[in-house]
Amino acid sequence: MTLRSLAALTLSFGAVTLLAGLALLGKGPGVPRELRHLRAGKGRTVAPAAYAVWTTDSFVALPHGRPLGVYAPHERRGVSLECRVQRTLLAGDGDLHLELVGTPRAPDGRDTAYVTAEVTPQWRRPGGWSTEGLIAAMRPNHGAVTPFEGGPARVRVSGWLLYDYQYDSRPTSWSLQNLSPRLTGWEIHPVTRIEAWDEARGAWRELPS
Residue 67 and residue 74: Cα distance in Å, rounded? Predict the structure, then answer.
């Protein structure tokens, strides 16, 4: 292989890699506008002006499998969910995934269907939330080195409503009864406020970000 051919091959490979990377970021030519919209929503760095109080059923009741023009208006809302965190997972992109459930499981019970929330790196900036600090405050069933005694803490998770259509698969009756599936593609992403219930004061205490 001549030097010229090798240079051309290297340039072509670099171009393909760049386009693939841009596609993952929701940028570049040929990227569907739904994906560009999704990436922009995940990257928000300003908190909502207000939060509506929601339940897990509120997320399920939103439109599913509809065009961008139908679901996008809902994503302009900030929502707040009182919940327990049954699992935390730090993803490769730096997002801390939270599995939110309405009620804690029984000591000998199993995990249940959940709503997803994600804390993005922009909100876990230096001096703010740390993965270890959030886990210690939320006390999830899974995600720490060892389980916490007493189970997950009572917390309130707030942030932007977002439809991650790539994960919008309705759970079956069997999975709801036997597994712990994700309830919906609708999620809180990014999380912009986390509060823990202070039993001694009888009030919510915000975890500084």
Answer: 12
